[in-house]
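Technical note accompanying the year-one report. For the benefit of new consortium partners, we illustrate the data format agreed upon in the data management plan: each record pairs a sequence with a structure-token string. No post-processing was applied to the example shown here.
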Amino acid sequence: MHDAVFLGPKAENADLLERLLTEVLRDHVFWRRNYHPADPRLITEETKRSATYERAEARLRDELFQILAELKRGAPLFSPRQVGHMVSDPTLPALVGYFAGLLYNQNNVVAEAAPETVRKEGAYVAALARMVGYPPLLTERLSAEDLRVRTPYAWGHLASGGTVANIEAMWLARNVRLYPLAVRLLAASDAAFGGYAEWEVETAGGGTRPLGELKTFELMNLPLPAVIALHARIHTALRADGAEATATFKAALPSVRKAGLSGLLFRYNACFPADPLRPPVVLASHAAHYGWAKGLDIVGLGADALRTLDVDQHLRLDMDALAEAVRDAAAHEEAVLMTVSICGTTEEGAVDPLHRVEALRADLAAEGLSFWHHADAAFGGYLTTMLPRDDDGRALPYDSDGPAGLLSEDVYRAVAALADVDSITIDPHKWGYVPYGAGALLCRDYRVRDAVAYAAPYIPTDEADGFGGFLGRWTLEGSRPGASAVSAYLSQAVVPLGPEGHGALVRDCVAASRALVAALDERFADGPLALRPLAEPDSVGFCFALVPRRGVRSLAALNAFTRRLWERVNVDGREDVGAYAFILSKTELPVGRYRHVLGRMLPGLAEDEPDEATVMLLRSFVLNPFVAAWNEREPAFAERFAETLHAIAAEVYPAHALGQLAEGWGRRLRVAVVEDDLAAPDALAHRLQHTPAYAAYLDVHAVVPGDAYDDADAVVWAASRDSIPDGAVVWDGGRLHDLTGHLVAALDDVIAA
């Protein structure tokens, strides 16, 4: 299927893209020329022949061609050979849609100016909601019945990326979770609203109690539906009392969005000194993206509010650590504002056990504890396209022979549980095959959007507005490009977000990643280097190290070797991008946070390292579906990749291994090479003396059989086989790096002796 929906690794569909782009441009030009056709042409043909015009055109062309040349220094993200980064080639409909939207330059902040691109954004976000199993997206306009009974709808919109979407989720959670405290404070400090203290609210443990009787910690642990219901009840009562009552309430309510976190804390704790408010915390695994600390800084809680927890042996959020963290916070009356589950970690592509987090959330409710559950699925959200669903949109039970059978049952259930979380971040510009920047935020209940609603005096607002009207009222970014909306919409219209459409692309990537890991495992099954995976991959991310079988002297030594490998498979704005056979990335993990995982991966190596030490790993991400097609050819992509990496490692290993030995001895190593013809063109001694990887660390002495070599640390016998001394390394010809393992072993034996 993907043959027709991508430009292709070799631009095989260039003619189709050119025709489509030309049609888009011609259609747009036709619209411009025929919009009030009698209007004057303001750029005349005479002007276009002037010297000033020609100089401007020439400058444009010169600068453009220079930029085009420089852009080729970047990683070739279109190529299957690029398996290092969380990005791939956009689909053809995404590219064409982006170009079409770009020409119209729509700002999707308000439907008044951009009615069609706003509708396209709504259609795409509705498709995302169906993809993850959420309720239907909010319609364009709420009916009177919707407003009365608060029909369950999902809410969401496009953003510039996952970082902004995650910040919005924190912003929403902060405002929603602190709302009951503001109401309690208002009821206690303003007699006009004192009646709110008598209102019954549902508690986390079940049952109802008057709001005024609940302690601060209990209010911070109200379940999300209870907070939404409280807001809805107040809203309904105020609407019945008229606009003046609503305005008075809004002016009087000391909410965090008005007073700020510090202002709310000051006023609240002054009113309730014996029952103070403590700033809440956010829980996530050590694998959380650095943007979470950044976001907590922005929303006023501070980066210290992020409590990072251990990962398990599969690199997923450790459930015992999460349960302990929630209960430990409760013991200190610190509320957990939000728990973050990661569906596809940035480092390894691991999928946290969302289904178990949901089960824990249900168990904790019996203890009077609750939290907002957010899924950071910026990368892995599109795994849901593999899941078969029933007519109600719920994921079917796991079937190893089904369209998502490549996933483990645990990962399948975790991905299916996205349907149950309170909010989700998804990045179309990652595995959605849409151009940057396109992120998305989804919320299971649209009513939370009121917690961040801001009106603009120059744009009319209406409480019946659904996904339409003034969208900027509920989004962090005031200006959002319509181009991204058209791009995303057209992509899913052509490649639907389900098992037979987008899911097939995702499935190809997962299969290709599995094949790549298997090929690496087979190629490094023997020889001087061993493949050491950080963990079995959950999706398409794979972190690993190539470790000398005879061991390494230190973690620093292994990192130095890994860096040498990475420099051979990494593109960093260099001129010779085409010289790289394959492109990988790297990551560096802190030993203190991953010690229990590294102990299995690198036994004995990281045990005594300080917590702040890091281990460098090679990292692959297979997001290009054409890798699967290449695996059907001979030689298969996976085998070719593994063979190339093996060859690179074999070339890099000698300098590393000999360098480590020389460092240990504190001098260059003396090696005697015994061969019959010292002057032969392919003489081994000559080759060793003139190959940098060996010449930097070895003093090579060329001798013929019978000559003395008593001062040599090791002997390589490349001569006739009449009388080979004990301990000599026998050379049968071939590649130099085939000699390295034997030579290092011999020198190691000398050291041991």
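Partners are asked to follow this layout when depositing records. The first helix runs from residue 14 to 33.
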